[in-house]
Amino acid sequence: MAQSKVAYGKVAAPARPGAVARENWISFRYLTGVMVLLTLVSIFHVWSRVEVIDLNLRIGEANKQFRDQQQENKRLKVEVASLKAPARIEALAKGELGMALPTDQQVVLVK
């Protein structure tokens, strides 16, 4: 009889099939939630990096346009200065318009 008590003491209690399935379901839900969260964080990270790269490209384009506009502005200032030159204006007046400097008799002093 002592042997039978030992033999029965080594026998494992029968497992409850519902408890194991429930633990698996809880761990599955937990892992699914973690995976969804990691996926969302990863997608947000990739999206933010793409936005940063896109903004850097747009900033580079804007800087290039700014430098081009500055160069164009300098070129136009030089052109304006050359067009305002008194020697050029006098040459156009004499050549194209047929004007001449006034003589002393043509000058009238107003007091």
From TrEMBL:
Compartment(s) of residence: Cell membrane
Transit peptide found in the keyword field: no
Keyword annotations from UniProtKB, A to Z: Cell cycle, Cell division, Cell membrane, Membrane, Transmembrane, Transmembrane helix
Keyword Cell membrane on entry: yes
GO biological process: cell division
Membrane-crossing residue ranges in chain numbering: 28-48
Coiled-coil region list: none
Principal location: membrane
UniProt xrefs under Pfam families: DivIC
Bilayer topology term: Single-pass type II membrane protein
GO cellular component: plasma membrane
NCBIfam families named among the record's database cross-references: ftsL_broad
Name under which the protein is recorded: Cell division protein FtsL
Organism from which the protein derives: Geomonas paludis
Gene field: ftsL
